[in-house]
Amino acid sequence: MNSSVLLSITTFIYGLAAFLYIASWVFKKPLSGRLAFWVALIGVAGNTAGIIMRWVESYRLGIGHAPLSNMYESLVFFSWTIVIIYLVIERQYKNAVIGAFATPLAFLAMAYASMSPNVSDRIQPLIPALKSNWLIAHVISCFLGYAGFAIAFAISFMYLFKQRDVEGKSNLLSHFPKPHVLDELTHQMVMFGFLFLSIGIITGAVWANSAWGSYWSWDPKETWSLITWFIYATLLHARMMRGWYGKRIAYLAIIGFMAVIFTYFGVNYLPGLHSYGAG
Amino acid sequence: MKLTVVLLLSLAATSIVGTIIPQNENPAAYFRAYGEFVYKLFDLLGIFDMYHSWWFQFLILLLTINIVVCSIDRLSATWKIVFVKNPKFNLSRFRKLSQKEVFDNKQKPKELVKVYEPFIFKHFGYTRAEETDKGLCVFAEKWRWTRFGVYTVHLSVVLLLIGGLIGSLFGFEGFVNIPEGEKVNNIRIRNTGQLRSLGFEILCDDFDISFYDNGAPKEYRSSLTIIEHGKPVYKKDIIVNDPLRYKGVNIFQSSYGKMPSDAPSQDKVPARDSPGEITLNFTSKNSGKKYRIKTVIGKVVDIPEGLGKFVIVEYKESAEFGGQNIGHAYMGILTPKGKNPVNIMLPLHFPNFDKMRRGSIVISIAGQKAKTFNAGKKADQRYYTGLQVTNDPGVWVVYTGFIMMIIGILITFFMSHQRVCIEIVKSGNKSKVIVTGTANKNKLAMQQRIKKISDQLAKL
Ligand code: HEM
Fold first, then answer.
1. Which residue has the higher pLDDT, B460 or B220?
2. Are A198 and B164 in contact (CB < 8 Å)?
């Protein structure tokens, strides 16, 4: 078995965990939720083993490098961080409903990595610019940040559903954590994400400075990460200074995550005039 | 505060524009993409170099002033809170808190305080016991100074901007191509294309490129020697991510290329002051006059007689024309005045090639002679190394800002000024203990902490 196969299996395990979490939420079966926790934990084990195997395989191929160098590898790492952060939250808040919203994100990221024809799971050698320890620090912190934002995004949705149902009529929402807990969790996750996004942008700048001699050059990807940073900075200020709470914070967290997604995927689709000259 | 949100969001919004419209491309390409009117409008607004335009810089300046003014404004209030000799504790405020942990103890308040105070001191570092109307009370607090965390973050943002400003005012960013075995003492500044002298010479002893089995590049390596006053003073092999630094000038491996050894830029043009320089001949059809202009790849030249602009965009080892390999050629873009840009090919082996176009201007490479060209035989080639040469005196300010920002965010988000109040109320020979606490941030976590403290106290 090689790492790609193991990671494909992990994808299905995450899918199963997500299914169980959703079933536990919809049909109010705590047992299903407890099972989901263990399935997710097995998924994490598979995910971890897959990342380590890939690392070892790259050395066997003679092009050894940390498995954080391309789209596939970063998505795998992204799923790993989402599930781990989620499991920590589940332990702390003793509530498995959030899993119905958080684990599908990990599943989707893995599924996209494993199945999309646009994402190659081949272990590629590092081109010269990518050979830097700063790059490893950069990718790890960016994706820790993105994972925090992803969970904030999931919880914001839960908040928006929950706050519509003030009288607690809806059966589906009855096991959701209380609105103020959801709101606080969103804020915590945004702070966590913001810290790591900041570290990510900073290590990226230091890397750029060591590779090209300029720490900031306004390329679309850099600019979009800055835009994301501005959006979350706005959220944090609105909350800390103006006491924004609840709905508006939830909307900002959702917009922020859209910017994250765009930074990651959308930037490649921006129009360019590079039809010639690039040689 | 509203202004802050508006500024942050408008910076985000305008930055988006800059990512949709590619920046700093060559004008002909813009002209072709947008047409004349939009091109002129965008050019006026500086949208093609948006992040350096006056209005974007103005937004950033506003933001800086906003942070500074706002922070100074609040700093004095925070200062007064942080630097007090005897922190004030307002018992009635603690009594009003909704979350309380309460338990009973058989000992008297006086004895309890003797046990509780050292315990709390270990965790908080500041305690004080006071008598109250109902018994005794122990106050404790920690991390008062974390209220300064925000200012650290804001100061770091200001440092980043100052560092960036220093870099753009006093630093430079340039590039130079050096063929193997040659040396240069000046570089070309990016954007303006001006020459700048370095005060020393860079000699490229050797350039090497290695490939992986799949054909992807593995390593670019230039062996460089710094020569000052005719003597070699420093030698280093540079690769991407491992630059050479000498006297504040950083030299980075950035690109490479091949040069035909028979290219005119190599041996036909006298008094060349920078390698990679190309001398162009422009022959005007109307006046019949001939002009000689030196340029490099990527530099836009104005054609005399107001005939338009021309830029060489790349050098090709084997260009194709009509399905035929016609050998080495420079590829360029000509933008005749008031007309759409056209692609121009200047093959080195066919000096009169551009005449075929029947334009109002004929372009050719100076010093070029017609030669028989054998498409099967590769001409001798050698590599040149493409170096990025920069100097940025502001970089240390920026790096200081980076470190401060991370520390500041950690303090601001994850540490808070915490206060607890343990009230011990006399009830007969026993005591009732009430534990309450506040924090200036993350109040949920503080509630859990209070519960934990209360549990620990109950066991003492
Ligand atoms: C470009 C970035 C930033 C700008 C332009 C900015 C601007 C400002 C301004 C103008 C205020 C004061 C508003 C007022 O008093 O009306 C403020 C307050 C504040 N900012 Fe920022 N800020 C930035 C980054 C940050 C970051 C990254 C953090 C968090 C780590 C942060 C945390 C805070 C906090 C906690 C306050 C409240 C301060 C207090 O209560 O005294 N700011 N910000």
1. B220
2. no
Say how many Å lie between the CA of residue A270 and the centre of ligand 1: 32
Pocket test for ligand 1, best of B66, B150, B162, B406 (most atoms within 8 A of CB): B150
Domain ranges of chain A: 1-124, 127-279
Mutation target among B9, B20, B38, B241 for the A interface, most CBs of A within 10 A: B241
Cα-to-centroid distance, A234 and ligand 1 (Å): 9
Tokens for B122, please give them. 């270990």
CA distances from B131 to B109, B110, B219 (A): 10, 10, 75
Pocket test for ligand 1, best of B59, B60, B65, B70 (most atoms within 8 A of CB): B70
CA-closest residue to ligand 1 atom 29: B409
CA of A245 relative to ligand 1 center, distance in Å: 17
d(CA B224, CA B179) in angstroms, rounded, equals 11
Among B174, B177, B196, B173, smallest CA distance to B297 is for: B177
Beta-carbon separation of A237 and B5 below 8 A: yes
To the nearest whole number, what is the mean pLDDT of chain B? Answer: 79
Query: A253 or B359: which carries more pLDDT confidence?
Result: A253
Domain boundaries, chain B: 2-78, 86-143+416-459, 172-265+380-391, 275-370
Q: Among the ranges A190-194, B54-58, B344-348, which has the highest mean pLDDT value?
A: A190-194
Q: Which atom of ligand 1 is nearest to the CA of B71?
A: 12
Phi-psi domain of B187 (left: phi exceeds 0; alpha: psi -120 through 50; beta: other): beta
Atom of ligand 1 nearest to the CA of A241: 37
pLDDT higher than 50, residue A274: no
**What one-letter code names the amino acid at B324?**
Q
Pick the CATH number of B86-143+416-459 from 3.40.1440, 3.40.50, 3.30.310, 1.20.1070: 3.30.310
Q: What is the pLDDT of residues A50-60, one digit of tens each?
A: 888 888 887 77
CATH 2.60.98 fits B172-265+380-391, yes or no: yes
A-chain CB neighbours of B164 within 8 Å are 216
**Atom 40 (ligand 1): residue with closest C-alpha?**
A241
Q: Taking CB atoms and an 8 Å limit, are B240 and A211 in contact across chains? A: yes
Task: Please tell me the predicted confidence (pLDDT) of residue B381.
Answer: 65
Pick the CATH number of A1-124 from 2.60.40, 3.40.50, 3.30.1490, 1.20.120: 1.20.120
Mean pLDDT within A104-132: 79
pTM comes to 0.78
Taking only the tens place, the pLDDT of each residue in A155-173 is 998 888 888 777 767 777 7
What is the DSSP secondary-structure string of B175-240? EEEEETT-EEEEEEETTT--EEEEEEEEEEEEEEEEE-TTS-EEEEEEEEEEEETTEEEEEEEEET
Ligand 1 centroid–CA B406 distance in Å is 15
Interface test with B, best of A60, A131, A222, A236 (most B CBs within 10 A): A131
Per-residue pLDDT of B411-456, as tens digits, reads 998 888 888 888 888 877 788 888 888 888 777 778 888 888 888 8
Bridge partners of B138, per DSSP, are: B129, B422
- State how far the Cα of B57 lies from the Cα of B23, in Å rounded to an integer: 16
Least confident of A177-191, A214-228, B6-20, B269-283: B269-283
User: What integer is the mean pLDDT of B169-189?
Assistant: 82
Burial of B432 (0-12, 13-18, 19+ CB in 10 A): middle
Q: What is the pLDDT of residue B374?
A: 45
The helix/strand/coil state of B432 is: strand
